């Protein structure tokens, strides 16, 4: 797949908001996610980071505003979904082998049966899981499970990968493995959109930063600019490690 | 006391010698209950999954009704199926009354709510866990149902075996719609009821021993299955 010319990106959000029973959890978010870069979403707990990811991915419908995939004219909802992948904080793996977890999504994507095994093994091998292919996915360690979730996403060949605090439950070496995996995706041209609480990780990975607070977009700027001198008081306080909410 | 001891020893003799008359009865029991459970699973598993995954007006009431039906009295089910299948009934023209088919139908009605209610619970719990991920993967509705049924396979098998336990142990429904005809519709439970009232305690006890053995074996299988599944699949 040629991700440069064929991508569903950019994704444009125009005044996107989300409310539950009158409580506005996210409001007035307008931004543009370009292909190729790594966007890190930062903000205190409850700022709406995970919510923003779920709205972008289409797991939730915005209650206000519009979402538009620039390169996806004429693609149906499900076809659009299949060009995106998401890795959750706690990986949800099926009760079958690691290998079968990957071939399962290839089946969903309509890959012919004969091609699945090779593609699945390639994805597992890429993330150092080839030896564990036959093991039941749910008895793998936390780090291995998250790498399997990444291998599964890799096999889908997405245009964009959402990651919702993928390393917050992992030890340092597993975190490193996940960051290297994210790097692999980036090098392959996959757009990265990720939330994290780990500022060090954000500095290591970010090309640009989206800073949310209390359900509002406060800043969206290149990473270098953001970390050197954030414009808003909230972001300055957040970076300085103050308790903001 | 003496009677009981004598009956027990001749019962054991019947069991160990694999008495042909007894084997006919055991075979029919297993066939009838097995077919009923198979039918109930074919209908009940997708029905349970559908109830777990879809939302429509009256869904809650239907769930409550199905849960309540898990405790249906077998004699009442037998009576209703009897009325449906009797000559004057709406399904009378098929001539099914007092045949094994009628017994399978009645037991299917008994087992179906158990399979549907338990599989609804299993699938709902799995959906809670998998829902977001499966939607993220773009799984279609039929793919979701198939995935959840397969991933719940061990729990669902437990539900099905629970249904088999209920079917093989009940006497009221098969007695009414089968008629307890020797060699045709006589099952272990109806034979036990009859032989006890006739005073042939040996055959009744022998069948009772086999029935208990069967139910114990089924439950042991359920236990082992769950144990192995938890260890292997997490």
From TrEMBL, chain A:
Record's keyword terms, sorted: ATP-binding, Cell membrane, Membrane, Nucleotide-binding, Transport
Topological category with respect to the lipid bilayer: Peripheral membrane protein
GO cellular component: plasma membrane
Residue span, ABC transporter domain: 11-239
UniProt subcellular location: Cell membrane
An example molecular function term from Gene Ontology annotations: ATP binding
Similarity comment text for this entry: Belongs to the ABC transporter superfamily.
PANTHER family attached to this UniProt entry: AMINO ACID IMPORT ATP-BINDING PROTEIN, GLUTAMATE_ASPARTATE IMPORT ATP-BINDING PROTEIN GLTL
Name of the protein in its database record: ABC transporter ATP-binding protein
TrEMBL record, chain B:
Membrane topology type: Multi-pass membrane protein
Protein localization: Cell membrane
UniProt key word Membrane: yes
Sequence intervals crossing the membrane: 30-53, 60-85, 97-118, 201-225
GO biological process: transmembrane transport
InterPro entries tied to this protein: ABC_perm_TupB-like, MetI-like, MetI-like_sf
Entry-linked Gene3D superfamilies: MetI-like
Entry keywords, A to Z: Membrane, Transmembrane, Transmembrane helix
Keyword Ribosomal protein attached: no
Domain ABC transmembrane type-1: residue ranges: 26-220
Top-rank taxon, per record: Bacteria
SUPFAM superfamilies, alphabetized: MetI-like
GO cellular component, one term: plasma membrane
Name under which the protein is recorded: ABC transporter permease
């Amino acid at each position: 797949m040629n991700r440069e010319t064929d991508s569903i990106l950019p994704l444009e959000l125009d005044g996107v908001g989300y409310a539950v029973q009158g409580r506005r959890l996210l409001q007035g978010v307008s931004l543009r996610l370009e292909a190729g870069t790594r966007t890190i979403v930062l903000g205190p707990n409850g700022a709406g980071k995970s919510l923003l990811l779920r709205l972008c991915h289409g797991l939730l419908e915005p209650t206000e505003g519009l979402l538009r995939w620039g390169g996806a004219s004429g693609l149906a909802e499900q076809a659009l979904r299949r060009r995106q992948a998401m890795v959750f904080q706690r990986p949800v793996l099926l009760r079958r082998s690691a290998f079968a977890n990957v071939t399962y999504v290839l089946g969903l994507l309509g890959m012919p049966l004969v091609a699945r095994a090779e593609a699945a093994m390639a994805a597992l091998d890429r993330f150092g899981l080839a030896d564990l292919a036959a093991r039941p996915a749910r008895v793998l360690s936390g780090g291995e499970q998250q790498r399997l979730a990444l291998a599964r996403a890799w096999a889908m060949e997405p245009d964009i990968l959402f990651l919702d605090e993928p390393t917050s439950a992992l030890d340092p070496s597993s975190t490193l493995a996940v960051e290297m995996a994210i790097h692999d995706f980036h090098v392959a041209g996959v757009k990265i959109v990720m939330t994290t609480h780990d500022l060090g990780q954000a500095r290591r990975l970010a090309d640009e930063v989206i800073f949310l607070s209390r359900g509002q977009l406060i800043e969206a700027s290149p990473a270098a600019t953001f970390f050197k001198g954030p414009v808003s008081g909230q972001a300055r306080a957040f970076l300085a490690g103050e308790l903001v909410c | 006391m003496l009677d009981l001891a004598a009956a027990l020893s001749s019962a054991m003799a019947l069991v160990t010698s694999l008495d042909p008359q007894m084997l006919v009865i055991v075979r029919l029991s297993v066939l009838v209950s097995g077919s009923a459970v198979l039918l109930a699973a074919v209908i009940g598993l997708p029905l349970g999954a559908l109830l777990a995954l879809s939302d429509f007006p009256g869904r809650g009431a239907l769930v409550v009704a199905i849960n309540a039906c898990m405790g249906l009295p077998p004699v009442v089910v037998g009576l209703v199926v009897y009325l449906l299948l009797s000559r004057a009934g709406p399904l009378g023209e098929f001539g099914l009354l007092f045949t094994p088919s009628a017994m399978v139908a009645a037991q299917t009605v008994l087992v179906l709510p158990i399979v549907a209610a338990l599989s609804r619970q299993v699938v709902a719990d799995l959906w809670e866990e998998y829902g977001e991920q499966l939607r993220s993967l773009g799984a279609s509705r039929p793919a979701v149902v198939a995935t959840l049924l397969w991933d719940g396979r061990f729990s669902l098998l437990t539900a099905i075996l629970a249904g088999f336990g209920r079917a093989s142990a009940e006497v009221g429904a098969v007695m009414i719609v089968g008629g307890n005809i020797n060699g045709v519709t006589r099952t272990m439970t109806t034979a036990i009821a009859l032989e006890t009232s006739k005073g042939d305690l040996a055959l009744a006890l022998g069948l009772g021993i086999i029935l208990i053995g069967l139910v114990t074996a089924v439950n042991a299988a359920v236990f082992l299955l769950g144990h192995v599944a938890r260890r292997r699949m997490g």
